[in-house]
Every structure is written in C-alpha cells, then in structure tokens.
Amino acid sequence: MIQKPRGTRDFLPDEMAQRRELEQKMRKVAASFGYGEVMTPMFEEQELFVLKSGEGILGEMYAFEDKGGRGIALRPELTAPTIRAYVNEAQVAPKPLRWFYFEECFRYERPQKGRYRQFWQFGCELIGADSAAADAEIISVAHALLKCTGVNFILKVGHLAPMKSLLADLDAVEQKKVMSALDKRDEELLQNTVSSLGRPELFEPLVALTKAQCLDDVFAVVGDIPEKARIEETFAFLEAQNIPVVYNFGIARGLDYYTGMVFEGFADNLGAENQILGGGVYRLAHLFGGKDTPSCGFGIGFDRVAVSIGEFKPSRGPSVAVVCTKETRTAAYKAASAFREAGIPAVMDLLDRGFGAQLSSALKSGATHAVVIGAKEAEAGTVMLKNLETAVQTEMTLEAAVEEVLHGSC
Asked: Is 0.85 surpassed by the pTM of this model?
C-alpha cells in the first residue's frame, strides 16, 4: 500500500468542512479591516528566501534545480513572496497597501503535533505605513483573526528598541550569543555568556527587561530611548481598542529581520510547540530590488490553530435527501434539481434501497430534510417533506417544499 509522504495529511469531508469554516471566518475578518487577498506562486527562486533568512534556510526548504538549472524552492513562508510581489507589481500603488493571504507552505523539518511539512499559513501585510497607528492596526487584525476562530490564546507584544539599546555596544556575533542565551530562558547561561564577553554588567538589566510587566518597568531599565513615544503611543492605541496583550520586551529572536514592534500569539493547549502567530515591523523590499519600504505584518499557523481548537460541528445550512423508488426516479430528479437551483444541496439514493434504508442514510448524512416521492406523490404531482430533526412531515407541492426548506419551520 502506497502511503502519503511523511509530514503530510489527507483531509476527509468532515475535517475539510471544519477547516473551510475557520478559513471563511478569518477571510471575513481580514476583509472587515480593508485587507484584500493576494496569491503568489507556490515556488520561487531560492535566493528570495536566502536574502530574507540567510543561507541556513536552504536546509529547511524543499529546494531543487529546474530543467533550466535555476535554483527553485517550494515556498517555506509567505511574507517574502508577498513583498517580492509588491516590488514586482505594486510599488507605485497608493499606500498603504493592506494585503492578506491564505496558502500552503512547505518546510523539510521533523513533523510533530501541529507542525507538518506541508502546512497552511494565514497572514496579513501592511505595506507603506510607518507609524504607531500602523503598528497597532496590524496587532488589532491579528487579535481579531485569532478571536474569530475560538482558539484560546494570549498575545504578547513588545518592541526591539529597548533590547537593542542594551546590546548596542556588542558586535553582531556577540549579540547573537546573548540572544541565544535569552531564548533558552536560562539565567545562569545568560550570566555566563555576558561574563565571557567581558560585559557582566548587562546581566541585571537584561533580566529586568525580560520580566517587565508594564512600560514604566521597561523605561526604568533603558531610560528615555528615542523610540519611547512611539512605543507608548502603540500601546495606548491597543488599550483604546480593548485589546488584551501581555508585555514581552524580552524578545530573543528576529533582531536581524524585525526593526521595531514585535508580537507573538500562543495557544494554551499545544505544549512546547504552542506558538500560533508571529509578526512585527520589518523592511524587506530593498533586499528584493525595490525601494526601502516600511512594512508590518504577521503569519498565523492555520494548522496549529485547527489542532488547538480540535473537532467541532461546522455550521451548515439546510440540505435534503430525495427518497424515491425506481418508478419515481424521474420525478425525484426534477425535485433534486429544483432544490439545487435554489441553492440547497440535494442528494439521491444510487443503490435502489427501500424507503427505510434511504431515510436512515439521510439521517446519518446530516441532511435536515427528506423529500419523499412515492407512487402516490408522483401521481399527484406533490412531495412529502419530512423534517428530520422534528419528524414532522407534510405533503405539498415541490415549489412549496423548496420554499419551506429555505424559509419555513417544517
């Protein structure tokens, strides 16, 4: 038996119905903020992702040479392709641009709960706005998107300027060593690291910054840095919208990529791999041959959100099962077509089973109504409409039955 490739999944109808409902909720929220959907190719030149993330990304990608000898990769994420599309197609468009996407990505990594080699990402990019209002808007969109799915989450928000101000005297290599120690949340390792760099005095302010619970705590550590006003304004805008966030000025990743505000979302039931969202302020367009353009955005791990939520019953509209005999099948085809033309799903038996078996199958299928057409109904030009939830059944014309399923209470 041929199995599916490792790190991929098959989605059957029930799970797909759940995923599509989540997707549609998120699309509706993104649109409510004025974001329009974009789509980029499934594969790009390898250089695009190397420029954004460094050579190390090659080991995580499905990378190959095409028949022309060009280095190609299946996209491992969607921010770089979206900004590449902006540089190629929309640099002269009025700013800011509000774009969202929902597409599949590919990474060659060890599969685990909520993490797959083929996965889906929902994200937004706000291009061409450099302000506290822009920072607050992108966080607001992220919060609304997660909230609409029903996932239990917390949103952590910070800014890189305080951390960068503490590490300003270190070179890039030394900064990475400190950030690596911070990322491990190991104070002993952090103390040993800064001591080995000849900067033991950094230990206490770094620890204090990671534990800051409010902006007063942050600026008590770093003083009146140039970015103070913007940071205060961003959090004030979030508070004005009643968006609950946790302060996180101990961010330990992304110094090479993000340039200002950063934020992350975490689900409460995914164990160690519980991050479901990441984003912040960045500048990428100039790396891809465009003009330097301020941007901010985020990506949501759609699969992790789905795993966190678990199974649920998708909301469904009315649907009918048309129950008939061999002799009344022609009338049943007419009935099924009438319901479908009205936008109501209709299914028919294909196995010539009896009425009892057909009704039992209809109940199991989740249909809301059965439309029964026996010899009596066919001769009279009527149907027997049965509400499968209440068991109430009424004989009526086909037109009346369509209207009843659409708007009635039968």
From this structure: yes
